[in-house]
Write the structure tokens for this entry.
Amino acid sequence: MPFRLYQKSQLRQLVEQVSGVQIIQGYILAMENAEIRIRQMGDEYFQTTKGAGDLSREEFEHPISRGLFNALWPTVEKRFFKKVRHTVVVDGKTFEVDLFDPEMLAPLVDQVVIIEAEFANEDEARTFVLPSWLEEAIDVTRYKNFKGKNIALAPKNLEQDIWTVLYQKN
């Protein structure tokens, strides 16, 4: 399903007032055109395979046992991150708001909030108008360093994209 990512630092304090779920996410394989990740989301465990793309890409996710998650975790090595995901529904649209663990990211990046919304198709994603509570958000869908696998591989690279995005906005 198509998705868009938005970055908005100011949202962190607002969203932290809503309960969220702790996510630990690691990458078994992280290539330019494919990724395989494992994720603990609260008490649930998943393995996900994703293809290439930015606005839309193939994604296959299925639940796995805690035992399999633990067995696979050593293959992740240092390719992982932690975040808290808050789910916010506004006017029937679901937004996943991710607050990343500041200890795992570069100093500038620790205030980044990634907001993801999924859409039925690419046209809906392209024509989507942000609600007023997100009007200052910046669309970072096409910036590769905002993708989870790249945050896990090289969080310091995200800092460069943040400066690029902020410079283009002003």
